[in-house]
Amino acid sequence: QVQLVESGGGLVQPGGSLRLSCSDSGSTLPYGIGWFRQAPGKERLGVSCINRASRLTYYTDAVKGRFTISVDSAKNTVFLQMNDLEPEDTAVYYCAAVPCDPQGMGNSQTWGQGTEVTVSA
Mean pLDDT for the chain? Predict the structure, then answer.
């Protein structure tokens, strides 16, 4: 069954970097992996995704050029490298299995605990 665990969050200053990891510990089915974030008082929104078969990616405009998504198939892990972080990036970040292509990403009805990212001076 699908088991996704997020890690790598923390507290960083503006301009800093973090790398988030999404570990898939059990799924035997192919699927895309998306990263979502939910800022305090706001709805959960998609950030980026990668299609594991094609390796094609999608980024929302807010993070394009700053974030990079990648997959290590041997380790069943998807990464989100976040550079040049801004206070607006502060949120709890989640990963989930979703449809994914360069035009956009789907949503999920199931969520894990997430990992918290705080960008503050």
Answer: 92
